[in-house]
Design a protein that fits this description.
Strands 2-1-3-4 form a 4-stranded mixed β-sheet. It is built from 9 helices and 4 strands. The protein is an alpha+beta fold and 217 residues long. The longest helix has 30 residues, at 91-120. It starts with a strand and ends in a 7-residue tail after the last helix. Strand 3 (61-64) and strand 4 form a beta hairpin.
């Protein structure tokens, strides 16, 4: 059955791979599943056809036969459950990998998104200069804890899993912040994720959309 995901017609990040379709593309590449992409404009995302797929009018969405999903965590989890490569077979190791998927999205990503918003959307506010260091320190607190847990390991719990895929995806947003480099093992962890052939294919595919090298699917 053909898998169809949605992505920005023109990503506001300029093709840096930070839009969340990249996570879904990466998951599909890791498990070697072909997919098609439906490109949507900001306007189309808020119209009934897209809202029927995504109640919040966002990307990405995921369609497969009669199934329509939204939320990258749910999509990556679905892909990981259906295909080998993102979750270990051992039941306990699998549960731990799923725990890391939730941790990436529920515990680490919110602080990082808050920082992105503080810089991009609130940078011109009179109180921004005072608030920014607090927001940055909240990110540092999380990274310190994550860094301590990762230690010198390559991945969070044994072999690469969907937990690493989401954690690396979440941390990628910090690349230009200077904060990631304060934690060399996390910077190396992110670089290991980016070096995976599946990530590279996903990144190149989203960039091709941005740079106009790929016709709309
Ligand atoms: N929690 C959602 C967030 C989805 C999300 O924020 N998507 C962004 C692109 S990365 C979007 O569509 N933004 C446009 C908008 O919200 O109007 C997920 O993980 O899928």
């Amino acid at each position: 059955m053909t898998i169809i995901i949605s992505a920005f017609e023109r990503s506001p990040d300029g093709g840096k791979g930070l839009a969340r379709d990249t996570r879904v593309r990466w998951a599909l590449e890791e498990v070697d599943q072909p997919y098609e992409v439906c490109l949507v404009s900001f306007r189309a995302m808020k119209e009934p056809a897209h809202l029927a797929l995504h109640p919040f009018g966002q990307i990405p969405t995921y369609e497969e036969g009669g199934l329509a999903l939204f939320e990258t965590g749910a999509i990556v989890f679905h892909v990981a459950q259906r295909h080998a490569g993102l979750l270990p077979d051992d039941a306990n190791a699998r549960a731990r990998a799923i725990t890391w998927m939730f941790a990436a999205l529920n515990t680490v990503e919110p602080a990082i998104l808050e920082l992105a918003n503080a810089r991009l959307l609130e940078g011109d506010k009179p109180w921004s200069k005072e608030r920014l260091p607090l927001v940055e320190d909240r990110v540092r607190d999380r990274l310190k804890q994550l860094s301590a847990r990762l230690g010198s390991a390559d991945w969070l719990d044994g072999a690469f899993s969907g937990g690493d895929l989401l954690m690396v995806s979440v941390l990628l947003r910090l690349k230009s912040s200077g904060i990631l480099e304060e934690f060399p093992n996390l910077a190396a962890y992110v670089a290991r994720g980016e070096a995976r052939p599946a990530y590279k294919r996903a990144f190149d595919a989203q960039l091709a959309v941005y740079s106009g090298k790929r016709p709309a699917g």
